[in-house]
Amino acid sequence: SKLTNLGHLEMTWRSRVRFHPLLVRILHKSRLRYYGKPEKAMDMPYQAYFEVADGSGMTSMVLWSSLCPEWYNSMKVGTVLLLEQYAIKDSYPFKTQPTPGDSQMKRFATMEISLNDRNPPTKISIIPEERVKPEWGLPEVKYRFITRSELDDLPHNYACDVIGLVTFVGRAERARKREHCEDFWLYRWAHAIDGTSDHPFILELFATSQPDVFERIHPMTYLVCTQMRVVRDLTENPSSTIYLTTSNESQIFITGWHKGQPYTKDTKVKNFIEWMKSQSEADQIKKTVIGGYYPFPRPPDNFSDY
User: Fold this and answer.
1) In whole angstroms, what separates CA 47 from the centre of its chain?
2) DSSP secondary-structure letter at 43?
3) Two domains, one topology: 6-136 and 148-305
4) Which of helix, strand or coil describes residue 274?
5) Highest taxon of the source (predicted)?
6) Which of 223, 261, 264 has its CA nearest to residue 244?
7) Is the peptide bond before 120 cis (omega within 30 degrees of 0)?
8) What residues are paired with 160 via a beta bridge?
9) What is the mean pLDDT of residues 234-256?
10) SS3 for 131?
11) Which of 31, 158, 219, 282 gives 20 to 30 Å between its CA and that of 130?
């Protein structure tokens, strides 16, 4: 009965120690971050950011330490949470910012909700979707799906979501995070088509906190990638080197993982499914490729240019 909202919290949190329970919906989810160091003895040095919203607006929420292995996989985009005994802190200024699907939504950027296993121990409850009431006024998850025919007109670093049929997936490759360091990013290239263009989406997929999905991307699967960023090599021919890369908030889904996801209601997703129903699976299988080294962007055609 005694609920608060994010708008009220932003105005009053600096003058209070305890806060009323809060009902929010998760709109974005970051990859899990490990911040352990050899010289520091910490049991569970994990952290994950979420963007959560209610009827008054959106803010960041941070899941800390031992709560990460306990809750991270259960907290999906679209999940409704009841939070009690949480803390509120000044927001961290250097974190990445996902692009919201609803550009009109108010953002409370000065604070972030902190969920800890102590001081105070946060109580988290997941509300099943069938028990979420319209009068709570929680926003729906909105997306920015684009088709392949729209991609060529989008600017560098534009945030978007895509769906397509995988026609190529390369082997997993590694890149150093920084020169002379022992940490690596794991990534793979993939192509996906959606029937709106002769060209595929070229996707640079870094391993997110979904290893079960990342390892099972195969040709002929329906692939959804959210919060992707457009990359254009503006020095070369811009149209030939355009591709999409994952961001810190990207989520990847393949056939078998789509059921119940909020994007299944999106018009462009429905249009893609209709197009797929008109295609011959045998014809598409002939065009698929798996594995091998994929140099991209491609080197010039002749050696003197190279």
Assistant:
1) 16
2) S
3) yes
4) helix
5) Eukaryota
6) 223
7) yes
8) 228
9) 83
10) helix
11) 31
> Is the Cα dihedral 158, 160, 165, 166 positive or negative?
positive
Core vs surface per residue 11-31: b (16+ CB within 10 A) or e: eebeeeeebeebbbbbbbbbb
pLDDT of residue 234: 64
Q: What pLDDT shows up at residue 259?
A: 93
Residue pair 197/204 in contact (Cβ under 8 Å)? The answer is no
- Going from N- to C-terminal start, the domains of the chain cover 6-136, 148-305
Kind of pairing between the strands at 57-64 and 107-115: parallel
What token pair was written down for 82?
Answer: 């009841």
Give Cα separations from 251 to 88, 152, 209, 232, 248 (angstroms): 26, 23, 9, 21, 9
Write down the CATH superfamily of domain 6-136: Nucleic acid-binding proteins (2.40.50.140)
Helix or strand or coil: residue 135? helix
What is 148-305's CATH superfamily? Answer: Nucleic acid-binding proteins (2.40.50.140)
What is the rounded average pLDDT for all residues in the chain? Answer: 92
